[in-house]
Write a structure and sequence with these properties.
The structure holds 2 protein chains of 2 kinds. Chain A is built from 13 helices and 2 strands; from the N terminus they run H-H-H-E-E-H-H-H-H-H-H-H-H-H-H. By secondary structure, chain A is mainly alpha-helical. Chain A folds into 2 domains: 53 residues; 223 residues, Orthogonal Bundle (MetI-like fold), CATH 1.10.3720. Chain A has a two-stranded antiparallel sheet. In chain A, strand 1 and strand 2 form a beta hairpin. In chain A, helix 4 runs antiparallel to helix 5 and helix 6 packs across helix 7. The longest helix of chain A is centred in the first third of the chain and has 40 residues. Chain A starts with a helix and ends with a helix. By secondary structure, chain B is of the alpha/beta class. Chain B is 37% helix and 27% strand. In chain B, the strands form 2 sheets. In chain B, strands 6-7-8-3-9-10 form a 6-stranded mixed sheet, with helices on both faces. A 4-stranded antiparallel sheet of chain B has the order 2-1-4-5, with helices on one face. Classes of the chains: A mainly alpha, B alpha/beta. At the A-B interface, helix 8 and helix 9 of A face helix 2, helix 3 and helix 6 of B. The structure holds adenosine-5'-triphosphate and magnesium ion (MG). Adenosine-5'-triphosphate binds next to helix 1 of chain B.
């Protein structure tokens, strides 16, 4: 009797293993969580120092056009207007996404609906290859091909938003395409059958049902592509011209948040205003990627029904 | 009673495998014909010949003659799109599009190029009423069709087919994924619409076949063993295989 009681009340080997497993998983999750929190803390504390320690007004930071943190402007405050970079970043991001989306949609449709077999064989490896190429290579190709072509066709130096957009276009295309392919593949085949059985042509079943059913997936793919474009530093820096001027056209030198960060971070001293101002730029980047993430979640939960 | 669909010596091959061995089956206008038989006997395969859904399966060859209103379904001149508008299909699993109820039912009408919003509205309403689901969805026409119960979804799918005003409706086990109450509602609605439409229904449920169908066809191993009025086939089957099947000896 006692023996049975003891057996029942003490935990079995399986239960103990279960507990250890849970503990390990919990610890790992906790560590990662800690890492994320400390990154946020670090970027935020430095980034906010510009406003709290150096007393730059947030509004001036976001709306002024002169970026020269080591100098004091005419009004007596440091010249830390980030508007040119913010505009630059958004321009290249949005333009490259707009440019890439129709291509991505056509390629994804080709791979899933029009010629699944050939698409699989030819395009899949191409896309995987494009994803794997390091950004410095993209930047280099941009510098030696895209910039001269833009210069020849558009005039100017060839550096600028247009060149940045074109390079980013090639970089986000595989991201958007492969994500959209996944979402097209997850559209159940019976939608296709149902549409055809109702007298839809193949093309009608694609664009009236499958495309429509996969809109949330497409939006998610585009946002991921935009997140990649927004955060890309090296390749953009190599072709955009790196002039902290508010861009007035697509073919004059400009800059993005990331390009200013990568060119500037090595040349400033920790704790000084020029350094803090760069951290503020990094904070904007971080907040933007957070925003992209939230957007994906919102779309995901809204589109749940449609999957 | 005139036959709307006549088929003679229909053979179908999946690659080299002959799945239908010469089927002769006619569908009288405005009657419900039930297709029964054990699993794998070729009921779905035959049904899908009638609206050419088997065209989507690669490696399928079909011989013999299949006629809708006297016109060859498989002639090269046949417009498959027009054929499928005349021969609607309801599937085993409810498969509404992930759109609103209204857009689902209006889908076929918009495909047909109907722009008149009032006409579309009228047809959507009539079809949902015919499909006996209007009362349940009329206040939520803009809700996603997937947010309704399986039985409601299946009736929405039936409404979607009815809206196109087909001549014949093919149903492949339309109630097998549903609870008995929902299945009963679908049986009722079939009886209500049968004077306007011709129905061919595959079912594994003998009671269902006997309750709703005018004629029954018994399939076995890719052959049509026996066909006749439902009463005759159930009360006095001519073939031994039929009576064995009805008595649950196999299948
Ligand atoms: N796409 C296909 N490719 C190859 N063979 C198939 C295909 N579909 C069906 N078959 C074969 O054709 C035969 C008839 O199948 P079918 O689906 O028509 O039977 P069924 O009577 O509808 O059965 P169930 O009652 O289970 O639905 C079976 O032997 C099946 O294996
Ligand atoms: Mg079947």
């Amino acid at each position: 009797m006692d023996k049975i009681k003891r057996q029942l009340t003490s935990s079995s080997k399986a239960t103990r293993q279960d507990r250890i497993g849970k503990l390990v998983a919990f610890l790992c999750t906790f560590l990662i969580g800690l890492l994320v929190v400390s990154i946020f803390y670090m970027v935020a504390s430095r980034g906010l120092a510009t406003f709290f320690k150096d007393h730059v007004s947030l509004w001036d930071f976001l709306s002024h056009q002169n970026w020269n943190p080591s100098q004091v402007g005419k009004d007596g405050t440091p010249e830390v207007g980030a508007l040119p970079m913010i505009v630059g970043s958004f321009s290249v991001t949005v333009l490259s996404a707009i440019l890439a989306t129709p291509f991505a949609v056509s390629m994804a449709l080709f791979m899933t609906e029009i010629a699944p077999k050939r698409g699989q064989k030819v395009l899949q490896p191409v896309i995987e290859l494009l994803v794997g190429i390091p950004s410095v290579v993209y930047g280099f190709v941009g510098l030696t091909i895209v910039v001269p072509v833009v210069r020849a066709l558009g005039g100017g130096t060839g550096f600028g938003i247009l060149s940045g957009t074109l390079v980013l276009f090639v970089m986000v295309l595989p991201t958007i395409t492969s994500m959209y392919v996944d979402s097209l593949r997850s559209v159940p085949g019976f939608y296709r059958e149902a549409a055809l059985a109702l007298g839809a042509t193949r093309w009608q079943s694609i664009y009236k049902v499958i495309l429509r059913a996969s809109v949330p997936g497409l939006l998610t793919a585009i946002i991921f592509g935009m997140a990649r474009a927004f955060g890309e530093a090296l390749a953009v820096q190599m072709v955009i011209g790196n002039a902290s001027l508010l861009p007035h056209d697509l073919i004059s030198p400009a800059s993005t948040l990331t390009s200013v960060l990568t060119t500037g971070i090595g040349n400033t001293v920790m704790g000084t205003l020029p350094n803090n101002a760069l951290w503020s730029l990094a904070l904007i980047l971080l907040l933007m990627s957070l925003a992209f993430n939230l957007l994906v979640r919102v779309i995901g939960s809204k589109g749940r029904l449609t999957k | 009673m005139a036959n709307i669909i006549t088929t003679r010596n229909v053979r179908l091959y999946y690659g080299d495998h002959e799945a239908l061995h010469g089927i002769d089956l006619d569908f009288p206008k405005n009657q419900i014909t039930a297709l029964i038989g054990p699993s794998g006997s070729g009921k779905s395969t035959f049904l899908r010949c009638l609206n050419r859904m088997n065209d989507l399966v690669s490696g399928v060859t079909i011989t013999g003659s299949l006629k809708l209103d006297g016109k060859d379904i498989y002639s090269p001149q046949t417009d498959v799109v027009a054929l499928r508008k005349k021969v609607g299909m309801v599937f085993q699993q409810p498969n509404p599009f992930p759109f609103s109820v209204f857009d689902n039912v209006a889908f076929g009408l918009r495909l047909a190029g109907i722009k008149d919003h009032k006409l579309i509205q009228e047809r959507v309403e009539t079809s949902l009423k015919q499909a006996a689901v209007w009362e349940e969805v009329k206040d939520n026409l803009t809700d996603n069709a997937l947010s309704f119960s399986g039985g409601q979804q299946q009736r929405i799918c039936i409404a979607r087919v009815l809206a196109v005003q087909p001549e014949i409706i093919l149903m492949d086990e339309p109630t097998s994924a549903l609870d008995p109450v929902s299945a009963g509602k679908i049986e009722e609605l079939l009886l209500d619409i049968q004077d306007k439409f011709t129905v061919a229904i595959v079912t594994h449920n003998m009671q269902q076949a006997s309750r709703i169908s005018d004629r029954t066809a018994f399939f076995l191993d890719g052959k049509l063993v026996e066909t006749g009025s439902t009463k005759q086939l159930f009360m006095a089957p001519k073939q031994e295989a039929t009576s064995d099947y009805l008595n649950g000896k196999f299948g």
